[in-house]
Write a structure and sequence with these properties.
By secondary structure, the chain is α/β, with parallel strands linked by helices. The protein has 2 domains: about 120 residues, Rossmann fold (3-Layer(aba) Sandwich), CATH 3.40.50; about 170 residues, Rossmann fold, CATH 3.40.50. About 50% of the residues lie in helices and about 20% in strands. α1 links the parallel β1 and β2. α3 packs parallel to α4. The longest helix has 21 residues. The radius of gyration is 19 Å and the shape is globular. It starts with a strand and ends in an 8-residue tail after the last helix.
Length: about 300
C-alpha cells in the first residue's frame, strides 16, 4: 500500500522541518510556506491530510482550509496554531470545518495519532468517492427531528417558523429535559445554547456525538470562550458556532446547510467516520458524560425505544 500524502503549510520553514521529522517515515510529505501554492497542490495531488498554521501573511489558515474543503472535500483538515484566538476558532468551524484544532507547542505523540486517524479516514473516503447528492436522496425520506436546548423558547419558535412542517422541533428548557428527550428519541440536529440555567451543557453535546456521529450540532451562545470552543471542535465536532443574538436569515441559511450535511452522512459510513471525536478530557465532564452515556445505552436497549 502506498503511503498517504500529507500537506504541511506554515510560513516558518523551521516549523515545517520539525513537522516533517514526525511524518517522513510513514507519509509522502509535501510542504510549502505559500498558501496559494498549497491550493495548487490540492488541485493537482491526492492529499489525504492538510495541516495548516493559522497566522500566515498571505492567507489565514482557516481561509486556506475553507478553500481545501471546496477543492478537495475528501482531504482531512487540521489547524495547528500557536494562537487560540476566538476569530480563528470560529472560522475553523464555520468556514474550514476542521477535523481537529491543535495548539502549538504540540505533543509529538498526540499530533502523530491525530494525523494517523485522519489519514485512515481520508483513505476510506477517497476509496468510495460517494456523491453527497446520492446520500441525500437515500435518506431524505426520514423526517427531521431537531432538539433545541435553550432557556428561551424563542429560539425553538424561530426554527419552527423557518422550517415550517419540514421538521419536528422539540424544545428542552433545561438540562434534565434535554437528557430525557435524547434518552428516548433519535435526533437529527441539536441546536444548543452552551449555558442553561447557569450550567454548562457541553458534556451533553460531546456525549451525543459519541453516541451517534450522524447527529449534527449547532452552538448558539453569547459567551466568548476560546478554549471551550476548541474543546467542542475536537470533542463534539460542532458544525456551526453562531454568536447570540442571531438574526433569522443567518440561522435559516445555516440550518439548510446542516440539514443537507445530516442527510449526506446518513448514506455514507465513510462520511460518518469524518465526524469521529476525541474522548472527553475534562475530569468532571467525563464523569457526567459517562453517566449520561450509560443512561442512553440502558434506556435505548429497552423494547419500543428508538434505536440510533
Amino acid at each position: 500500500m502506498t503511503k498517504p500524502t500529507i500537506l504541511l503549510v506554515d510560513d516558518e520553514e523551521r516549523i515545517l522541518r520539525s513537522l516533517r521529522m514526525l511524518f517522513f517515515a510513514d507519509y509522502n510529505v509535501l510542504m510549502t510556506t505559500d498558501a496559494h501554492e498549497a491550493t495548487r497542490i490540492l488541485r493537482e495531488e491526492r492529499v489525504h491530510v492538510i495541516v495548516s498554521d493559522q497566522r500566515m501573511p498571505i492567507m489565514q489558515g482557516s481561509e486556506l482550509l475553507s478553500i481545501a474543503r471546496e477543492t478537495s472535500p475528501s482531504t482531512m483538515r487540521i489547524l495547528l496554531t500557536g494562537y487560540s484566538d476566538m476569530e480563528a476558532s470560529i472560522a475553523s468551524v464555520n468556514e474550514g470545518e476542521v477535523f481537529r484544532y491543535l495548539l502549538k507547542p504540540w505533543n509529538a505523540a498526540d499530533v502523530k495519532e491525530v494525523v494517523a486517524q485522519a489519514a485512515a479516514i481520508a483513505r476510506a473516503t477517497f476509496a468510495t468517492q460517494q456523491s453527497p447528492r446520492v446520500a441525500v436522496i437515500e435518506t431524505a425520506k426520514h423526517k427531521l427531528r431537531i432538539l433545541v436546548m435553550d432557556n428561551d423558547q424563542a429560539t425553538a419558535r424561530a426554527i419552527e417558523e423557518i422550517l415550517q412542517h419540514r421538521a419536528e422541533v422539540i424544545w428542552a428548557q433545561d438540562e434534565e429535559h434535554a437528557k430525557e428527550i435524547l434518552a428516548h428519541q433519535n435526533v437529527s440536529l441539536v441546536v444548543a445554547d452552551l449555558n442553561m440555567g447557569g450550567k454548562s451543557v457541553s458534556y451533553i453535546l460531546k456525549t451525543v456525538k459519541q453516541f451517534n456521529p450522524q447527529t449534527q450540532i449547532i452552538v448558539l451562545t453569547s459567551f466568548d470562550d476560546t478554549s471551550h470552543l476548541i474543546e467542542l471542535i475536537n470533542q463534539a465536532q460542532i458544525i456551526r458556532y453562531l454568536p447570540k443574538p442571531i438574526r433569522n436569515n443567518i440561522l435559516a441559511r445555516n440550518l439548510e446547510f446542516v440539514i443537507e450535511r445530516f442527510h449526506a452522512l446518513g448514506g455514507s459510513p465513510e462520511m460518518q467516520q469524518r465526524q469521529s471525536v476525541e474522548p472527553v478530557k475534562d475530569e468532571q465532564e467525563r464523569l457526567l458524560s459517562n453517566k449520561f452515556m450509560g443512561m442512553l445505552n440502558r434506556l435505548r436497549s429497552r423494547p419500543g425505544v428508538e434505536q440510533s
